[in-house]
Amino acid sequence: MSVTPATSRAWHLTARPQGWPKPEDFALREEAVAAPGPGQILVRNLFMSVDPYMRGRMNDVKSYIPPFQLDQPMDGGAVGEVVASEADGIAVGDHVLHGLGWREYATVEARHAVKVDPAAAPLSAYLGVLGMTGLTAYAGLLEVASFKEGDAVFVSGAAGAVGSQVGQIAKLKGASRVIGSAGSDEKVRLLVEEYGFDAAFNYKDGPVTDQLKEAAPDGIDVYFDNVGGEHLEAAIDRLNVGGRVTVCGMIAQYNVTEPPAAPRNLALVIGKRLRIQGMLVTDHNALQPRFVEEVGGWIREGKLHYRETVVKGIEHGVDAFLGMLRGENTGKMVVGFGD
User: Fold this and answer.
1) Which of these, 283, 179, 183, 267, lies nearest to 223 by C-alpha position?
2) What pTM did the predictor assign?
3) What are 120-139's pLDDT values in tens digits?
């Protein structure tokens, strides 16, 4: 039987970052653990997710998701073990996925938790390859970008959790060519040797436009954008007539204090009849059953590979988040609370 402590630790945002967040913008604080009421469960978190979108929530601006409140626990994806339950259908010992990360223990409304099976996949996978990031890749490529067999695909931030799955799904679905960009030679090798990309380049080695032109001499049909800025400008140059862009993220400008100069070639959108569409994964929840079945099958068959970067200890949660923003992770960045 689990012993529930009277208090546990939770990360608070203590100041709105200006530009890059700093460790002193956060504080790890002790808080009372609330016993679950009717319809609630108490979860001991085992893994929490750190994601690029969380940077936007640190700004006090109107957006698609409310900002983090100062001096209150932050939140985000987490998976853990139920240690107390006052909800039908969820028992002590079950494992659940929920939205109250950034803390060791969470009192969760059961209707906002989803049971997951640790025997079917590692628990951390439900935050990445089989979780929100995986569904983002799946929906963003197949539904938002209207991918079709024979398309040539370019993915920026391709060694990250979303980008690495986009490229592999494109190959599995019959892409004619898949190209990725990444921020180190090691990640470039990973894209080609493990994930099966046809070509990849280190965007730090020279202008993205020149490197993409060399990697995609016949142009591209789909661009999956995780970066924005210079990458988006380069992709617009190389997109063929009728090309499609899924704008998933723009990590290159999340921490800038001045508007980016690029893209400077948006007029090409007219003549090339391009479609540029932003996406939020929550708009595609209806795809979840098909996504889990298809991607889960690929993983079991060894057709789809994934990497995780696991940082141990809640005390290193902010370090993991800042490292993710700097591109220090390969694949999904998660924080593990377990022993």
Assistant:
1) 179
2) 0.87
3) 889 999 999 999 999 999 99
